[in-house]
TrEMBL record:
Positions of the UniProt region annotated as Disordered: 403-431, 551-575
Compartments reported by the entry: Mitochondrion inner membrane
Organism: Podospora fimiseda
Protein name in UniProt: BCS1 N terminal-domain-containing protein
Compositionally skewed regions (Low complexity) per UniProt: 403-415
């Protein structure tokens, strides 16, 4: 297509004159010479350019300016810019290679979180123009003033003011972190460059399982001037310290991560699920002797000199505890309190988790840090029993014992030798029958599963005893950790699991004794004052008790005694009230039948009367009666709460 003729037709006559007049200028000649070099497809473009050039030229020449000169200036500027860009890239590359240090951090690593938290708290970063907003959920124990998040509502009858959290999500601010790209900031007077980048990787393992084929991975590159990475290391250390600063009085609770996380193995198999305040040891009501025994055992084991002692004697460095007893008696509470005392993170695995496989278990044990508490919950219920079709001699013995004890209970004790022989024969017959019956039941169950289209091998999934033992004492187990296993049914445990070396100390938890009931009561109403905080339970409220409803003002503003909390006044008040509480506690305990209620049940009762100890004392009789009746009948409905 001939553009020149086209435009000549389209443009006014003066434009076509201009194009004709200038068609012999030097610029035209240059363009005509250059155009074959760029290929024929650019010809229309060149021609279009020349039209505009001629149009502009006719106007510029009126001011005495040569368009060819301006064009040359532009050409030079462009060339200079290109050369400068090349030089800049080369110089920057040289500086980066020879005069800066870099450290890369992958988003798979915890340091990434430390750095993000640090950066999100830096004013220079928060005020940056390129940010990423993240929804940030704080834990219930984070010390953040949330008073501005609250709105209050007058109740329907206008009688009280209650806190209202309906708007908290709307008002909670997001966290701002540097967006993808380059940023700079100062730390201790030194300039740092941060480059946040993201790449999408092909995830073969996931793709093979039919999962997502690609996953995003972020990387932070921290750089600073100088040939030593020390300043960056100091920055990372600072970020880590800041991250853990508020963790000092907290216990970090970790649980197995999602299935995807577990695939990575190692530390990535675990995820932090809570960061809660340390549970004081005194809040766990347990026989003092037992407490001291566990504490001193753990203390000795965790001593820095212990690994050498174990190594010199060829003993594997590990320590196992078995906490057994009825539900709600404090097994988990003691484990958390122990982790708090020794400042260790606690890694909790429930063997009831149906998604947990043996491979997961060993990879989880592989990912344990050097020192930690591992809490293996409910080890009796974790499908440790082998499938009935490959009953081991051990399981058979259990069955024999169970059936023999059943028959012993069912019959009167034989007195004569003949009777005994006959009875033994009966027992052995009956146990054989029991084993046979168990096998038949298992066979029927498998057949049914097959009929319903289920997986016939399904019952073999989960954690087998050997899988658990491998995880506990195989190479995967990280030496140095404290293993606490809890169970409600110690009698169901395989002896192999609790042999010395795997379980070194057993702690029995029981339902509350009267002494423990008294301690629980005192703990519930103890003076709750610590410097810098407003007391939650006040003795004014104890004196005021007897009223059947809670004063709404107590819900929003704690009652402060007249004259404030003067030191002497506080001590005096504390002394009197502690004595009073102790008396009420003794009366309360005398009404609790020993060994009937778990501490959790007593705690539940007291919690409902947490500001009114006298009321608790008045009502405990009726509660005990109703609960005993409920336990006797096996009912689930609680009539007195
Ligand atoms: N001995 C105790 N001292 C103080 N509080 C206790 C005690 N036992 C139970 N509690 C309270 O009861 C609740 C449940 O306790 P915990 O989870 O420790 O019991 P558990 O024995 O681990 O129960 P489960 O066997 O069902 O896991 C907790 O809130 C805890 O504070």
């Amino acid at each position: 297509m001939d553009f020149t003729s086209l435009i000549r037709d389209a443009l006014p006559t003066f434009a076509s004159n201009i194009t004709q007049d200038r068609s012999n200028s030097s610029t035209h000649r240059i363009v005509e010479t250059l155009s074959p070099l760029f290929g024929t497809q650019f010809n229309p473009l060149f021609k279009l350019f020349m039209i505009f050039y001629d149009l502009a030229g006719s106007r510029l020449s009126r001011f005495g300016l040569d368009p060819a000169f301006i064009l040359t200036i532009f050409g030079f500027a462009w060339a200079l810019n290109r050369i400068w860009a090349q030089i800049y890239v080369a110089v920057c590359g040289a500086i980066r290679s020879y005069f800066t240090s870099n450290i890369q951090i992958s988003s798979n690593d915890e340091i990434f979180n430390h750095m993000m938290k640090y950066l999100s708290s830096q004013p220079s970063m928060v005020n940056s123009r390129f940010l990423t907003a993240e929804t940030w959920t704080r834990s219930a124990w984070e010390d953040v003033d949330e008073s501005d998040l609250l709105t209050t509502k007058i109740s329907a009858d206008g009688s009280g003011i209650f806190l209202n959290f309906s708007n908290q999500e709307a008002k909670a601010p997001p966290r701002f972190t540097p967006a993808l790209g380059s940023h700079s900031f100062y730390f201790e007077g030194r300039w740092f460059k941060l480059h946040r980048k993201q790449e999408t990787l092909y995830d073969e393992a996931s793709a093979n399982r039919g999962g997502a084929q690609y996953k995003d991975k972020e990387t932070l590159v921290l750089s600073c001037y100088g040939r030593s990475p020390k300043p960056i290391k100091a920055l990372l250390q600072h970020a880590k310290e800041q991250y853990y600063a508020d963790h000092n009085a907290k216990t970090i609770v970790k649980r197995p991560g999602t299935h995807n996380m577990r695939r990575f193995g190692g530390r990535h198999s675990w995820q932090t699920v809570a960061n809660r305040p340390v549970r004081p040891m005194k809040t766990v009501v347990l026989d003092a002797k037992q407490k001291i025994q566990v504490l001193s055992d753990m203390n000795e084991y965790l001593h820095p000199a212990t690994p050498k002692w174990y190594a010199n004697r060829g003993i594997p460095l590990r320590r196992g505890f078995l906490f057994h007893g009825p539900p709600g008696t404090g097994k988990t509470s003691l484990s958390f309190a122990l982790a708090g005392v020794f400042g260790l993170d606690i890694y909790v695995i429930s063997l009831l988790d149906p998604s947990l496989t043996e491979e997961d278990l060993s990879s989880l044990f592989n990912g344990l840090p050097r020192r930690c508490v591992v809490l293996l919950e409910d080890i009796d219920t974790a499908g440790l029993a082998r499938p009935p079709d490959d009953l081991s001699p051990l399981a058979e013995t259990d069955l024999l014992l169970a059936s023999s004890s059943a028959s012993t209970n069912a019959t009167t004790t034989p007195t004569t030798k003949e009777d005994r022989t006959a009875s033994e024969k009966d027992k052995s017959c009956s146990s054989e029958v029991n084993v046979e019956v168990t096998k038949q039941i298992a066979e029927i169950a498998r057949g049914l599963r097959r009929l319903m289209g289920g997986d016939p091998g399904a019952e073999k999934k989960g954690i087998s005893l050997s899988g658990l033992l491998n995880a506990i004492d195989g190479v995967a187990s990280h030496e140095g950790r404290v293993l606490i296993m809890t169970t409600n049914k110690p009698e169901n445990l395989d002896t192999a699991l609790i042999r010395p070396g795997r379980v070194d100390l057993q702690v029995a938890f029981t339902n509350a004794t009267q002494e423990q009931a008294k301690e629980l009561f005192e703990r519930m109403y103890e003076y709750d004052f610590h410097p810098g905080s407003t007391p939650k339970t006040t003795f004014a409220s104890i004196q005021e008790e007897g009223i059947s409803t809670v004063d709404p003002s107590e819900l929003t503003t704690p009652t402060i005694p007249a004259g404030g909390y003067g030191q002497e006044e506080k001590t005096e008040e504390k002394r009197t009230s502690t004595k009073e509480i102790s008396d009420i506690a003794a009366q309360f305990a005398s009404k609790i039948p020993p060994g009937v209620f778990s501490p959790a049940e007593l705690q539940g009762f007291l919690l409902k009367r947490k500001k009114t100890p006298r009321k608790a004392l008045q009502e405990v009789g009726a509660w005990v009666e109703a609960m005993v009746e409920q336990k006797r009948s096996g009912g689930r409905v609680i009539t007195v709460q």
